[in-house]
Please model this.
Amino acid sequence: VSQIVAAAGELDDFQRNTAMEKARDHVDAALKRAGENPPAPRSTVEALRSERDPINKANFLQQVLFSELDDVRRDRQTLSDLQARLSSMTNDIDNALGDALGATFDYFRAGGQ
Model:
C-alpha cells in the first residue's frame, strides 16, 4: 500500500518523464513485495498489475509525444533556415537589380557610350 501511495505521489512531479519512471518503480517494488513470503492474494497481484499497465502506456505515449514534438521542432528550424535563405536571396536580387539599373542610367547619361 505504501508503494502505491508513493507512486501516486510521484505523479505530481513537474518533470513528467521522471515522475512516470518513479511511479513505475514504486509499482514494480509493490509487485515484488507481493511475491515475497507470504505472497499476497492473487487479487492484490492483479490489482497491482492493472496499476502498472496505465503507467506503462502513459510512459510510452509520452515518449511518442516527445518524439513528435522533436520532429516538429526540427521541421520548424528547417523552415526558419529556408526563410532566412530566401530573405538573403531576395536582398541579393534587389542589390543586383539596383546595380543593373544604376549601370543602365550611367550608360545612357554617358550618351550610350
